[in-house]
Design a protein that fits this description.
The chain is mainly alpha-helical. It contains three helices and two strands. The chain has a two-stranded parallel ribbon. The longest helix is centred in the last third of the chain and has 14 residues, at about 40-50.
Length: about 60
């Protein structure tokens, strides 16, 4: 729910049309142990939005 919220907010701020994450991206985000806190998650989402070239964020946009 936080990811969807941040995606909507950051897409609006950056004037991008982002529909969401692909299922692979969602699975990757959930499977990865998230050591950060909510502000770090928000920054992570914002970076993906800024760099997004399509309306869906996929795992290829994740750092290795």
């Amino acid at each position: 729910m936080l990811v969807a919220h941040f995606l909507r907010r950051k897409a609006a701020v950056h004037r991008k049309t982002i529909r969401g994450l692909t299922s692979r991206a969602t699975e990757g985000l959930v499977a990865n142990p998230w050591p950060g806190n909510v502000p770090q998650l928000e920054q992570w989402i914002e970076r993906r939005v800024v760099l997004a070239e399509t309306d869906l964020i996929d795992v290829e946009q994740f750092p290795s």
